[in-house]
Design goal:
This protein is α/β, with parallel strands linked by helices. Helices cover 44% and strands 10% of the residues. It is built from 13 helices and nine strands. The strands form two sheets. The chain has a six-stranded parallel beta sheet with strand order 4-5-6-7-8-9. A three-stranded parallel beta sheet has the order 1-2-3. Strand 4, helix 5 and strand 5 form a beta-alpha-beta unit. Helix 1 runs parallel beside helix 12, helix 4 packs parallel to helix 5 and helix 5 runs parallel beside helix 7. The longest helix has 15 residues. The two termini are 34 Å apart.
């Protein structure tokens, strides 16, 4: 399966005349943390509530080799805390990972806790290129006063923050477009990347992107057969998706996806928005953002 999958991915970007693709939403984390994440998916936990087979359950070296064989030029190590006291040591791990895996964009994270502004600044000074904020798993408010200096710092530094803020696959206490709208009203220059296209509030997050020029959305799991069964993308928003083509970024959720990697790419292709749109989404937009 891996060889067929690899050939399928390579044919996709070669047809578009690209040198490869950039994936802004991939997961690498300490093995004991990743094992717990996989166990959660295996148990159909309450945030998923459905069967979720993980397609790429290989060890770290194999997963890295697989991404590179796909032609993924740059990727991320999305990781996130679910409680206080985790983020700083996750950042230490991620810094080490980025040092030994140079094609991974140095990723960091945070949690609303005492000292968060200190360790976020340390991560920025250490070269972090992208942050991950998971409002659903972390169960925190983006508008928590403890995070105010963090958002200000990241907005000033121009560092993107990939944020799971939509209410899919299950709503959280602080998910949805309303709290993010309040955040952006205070930090309009924040380079917020809305994970999963903001599903299921696709229309609302597209509207926020239209209102704030630095807001972007990643495609992670959106449009796939798996997701369309329970959270279909509204057909009447395809025009808005085309208009925002310079701010849509390829994301996949590799390795925690219940289908082959190539499927995410082909679902973008079947939207029918054209090759120029695909080139921007799969390479150009992320290349410019992280230049």
């Amino acid at each position: 399966m891996d060889k067929d999958d690899r050939d399928d991915v390579v044919r996709f970007w070669e047809r578009l005349g690209l040198p490869g693709i950039i994936d802004v939403h991939t997961h690498f984390m300490p093995e004991r943390v990743l094992s717990k994440v996989w166990a959660y998916f295996d148990s159909a936990g309450p945030l998923t509530g459905m069967e979720w087979p993980i397609t790429y359950r290989q060890d770290e070296d194999e997963r890295l080799a697989l991404l590179r064989s796909f032609g993924v030029l740059r990727f991320t190590s999305m990781l996130y805390p679910h409680k206080a006291g985790m983020a700083a040591w996750l950042n230490d791990w991620a810094a080490g990972f980025a040092a030994r895996v140079p094609d991974c964009l140095h990723t960091a994270t945070f949690f609303p806790e005492e000292g968060v502004d200190r360790y976020v600044r340390q991560a920025v000074e250490a070269g972090a290129r992208v942050f991950k904020s998971h409002l659903q798993v972390g169960a925190y408010d983006a508008n928590d006063p403890l995070l105010e200096p963090v958002w200000g710092l990241l907005a000033e530094a121009g560092i993107p923050v990939v944020t799971h803020c939509g209410s899919g696959p299950a709503p959280g206490k602080y998910t949805g477009p309303e709290p993010i709208g309040r955040l952006l009203s205070r930090h309009p220059r924040l380079r917020l990347v809305v994970a999963h296209m903001g599903m299921p509030e696709y229309a609302e997050f597209l509207a926020l992107a239209a209102a704030y020029p630095e807001v972007r959305l990643d495609t992670t799991m959106a449009f796939t057969d798996f997701t369309e069964e329970f959270t279909p993308f509204p057909a009447d928003r395809l025009g808005r998706l085309a208009d925002l083509g310079d701010r849509i970024l390829l994301g996949t959720d590799f390795p925690n996806i219940p289908y082959p990697y190539a499927h995410q790419l082909h679902t973008l292709e079947r939207l029918g928005l054209g090759d120029d749109w695909l080139r921007a989404v799969c390479h150009g937009n992320a290349s410019a953002l992280f230049a």
